[in-house]
Each structure stands twice: as C-alpha cells, then as structure tokens.
Task: structure prediction
Amino acid sequence: MAQEKEAKPAAPPLKLWLGPVALGWLVPGGGHFYLKRWNRGALLLLAVAGMFVFGLMMRGRMFEPSDGDLFNMALNYGGFIGDVASGALYFLTTWLGYSQPDLAGAVPDYGTKFLVCAGLLNILAMIDAYEIAVGKKS
Amino acid sequence: MYWNLSHFQATFFFALFTSIVFGVVTKKTDRERLHYGLYVFGCFLAATFGLGWLMYFGHW
Result:
C-alpha cells in the first residue's frame, strides 16, 4: 500500500536570511541589529566580544588547521572553526599580529577555550538571526 | 597586558557570557529570556561550587 509522502516545506529564500546571517558572523549581534532587534543585538555583542577579549587577555592560543593523527586534526580544525566563527574579531586580531604560542598553565588554557567559545556563541546568535529572518521567531 | 584570573573568576565570567547568549537566543519573550538567563547562570554557579566541593573532599 502506497504511503503518501509528506510534502517538505520549501526552504526559505536565500535573500531573506543570507544578509542577517553573514552580518551576524562578521559582527557579533550584527544580524540582530540588521533586523532591528537592538537590545538583543547589543547583549549578544557584549557577550561574544567580552568572551573574546577575555580570551585574548588571558593569552589564549588561536587554533590553526594542521594535519597529523585523527584526534589532533579534529581538535585543530574544530578549534579553528570555533575561532573563525567570531568573524571580524578573529580577522582583526590575526591581522594585527596576535600569535600566541601554546603556554603552559591554567589561565592561557582557559583563554584558548574562551576564544573558541566566543565563536561557538556567535554561531548560536547567527542561528537566532536566521530564525528571526525567516519568521520562525519574533 | 595579562589578566591572571583565578579559576573561579574565569568560570564566573564564562558562565556570565554564556548565560547572556543562552538567554537571548532561547526564549520568546523578554521576561522568559531574563528568567532563563538567570536560571542558566545559577546552574553554572551551582555546578562550579558543587564540583569544587566534590574535588575538595575527593582529593586525599
């Protein structure tokens, strides 16, 4: 007996969400500013930029993609994606020459995690901007 | 310049920034966002103190 296939909802048009998501990647909270969610955008900017600045001040290390065994490759590529997800903060920092070697100690290690987590939080902000742009949220 | 934060200070600020984002992106009204952000922040701190005491008593 043939089952009726449920029709998949059409994907939202690219032009609806690409701008807010791209802006949200480049400037934390930028997607929300673009969509006129000023307060939420400001809070996201404060939180993501704050996390990033704390990571820098604790001398965290930026990940770079590198080959090697599978674990190291996953660690470095994953960390690199997390760093790059901070957008302009990452590009500005590396452009200005920030290059921190892997220092021993708890504080620089925390700093490295702060830098990656700033990017991961920005990904959450980008997803939120996407949902607002396509009308799933207000 | 170098910020030599203690473990607690680093955890506190991590919890603070993360809670703000979780609160903002998760709920639908401002009131719900505030409550959820405070709830997540409280959970982070409770876990910090709880695990801290666990390590204190488990370390002999």
